[in-house]
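Exercise (ungraded).
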Amino acid sequence: MLLTIPDVLTRDQVAYCREIMDRTEWVDGKVTAGHQSALAKNNMQLPEGSPAAREIGDIILNALSANPLFVAAALPLKVFPPLFNRYSGGQSFGIHVDNAIRLMRGSDFRIRSDLSATLFFCDPEDYDGGELVVEDTYGEHRVKLPAGHMVLYPSTSLHEVTAVTRGARVCSFFWMQSMVRDVGQRTLLFQLDATVQQLGAEKGHKDPAVVQLTGIYHNLVRRWADT
Ligand code: NI
């Protein structure tokens, strides 16, 4: 399941974050890549753990924790501190799969990457190319979203970023471990949650069928989730 989450950040938040990025020095993106992906990766990154990356990362994580669509879709257990990359002058990131386990440098924090996210910090008309191409069982998806919007996709997917041939593409990317490891179970919960919300809005949340379905949702979470 590939899901767009609109307006994770407001335009003001995007502008504020861009200002911080513009006065920070960027480094070669290969520093966070695994062995295979280092061969495919050609971009710049904000230094991991730098004050700039931390400040903007916190803004993103705060926004996400208050975003019902994100919480329902990801059922997040642990989120890796957001990283930031910039592509320009023909830079790209060839096809790869993200590392299964992510370690935070200088700490014992580690996650299994179940879901990958890309949050856009510039608008599609600011650059040519730079599409995120994700392959899943339904085929190939091309993603290029307005600033402040985010795409969520299974970390098991092969994906790439096509060459940026004009302007610059600035994004945040990060991984999360879900409370529900299995993508099929997670998708069912997301669909059930959306249906219960819709039914609740139509019939009222005290309607007996809505109460029953809400109970079924929570009992499935109890069955499938790790905390
Ligand atoms: Ni990747």
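Further reading is listed at the end of the chapter. For now, observe: The mean pLDDT is 94. DSSP finds six helices and 17 strands in the chain.
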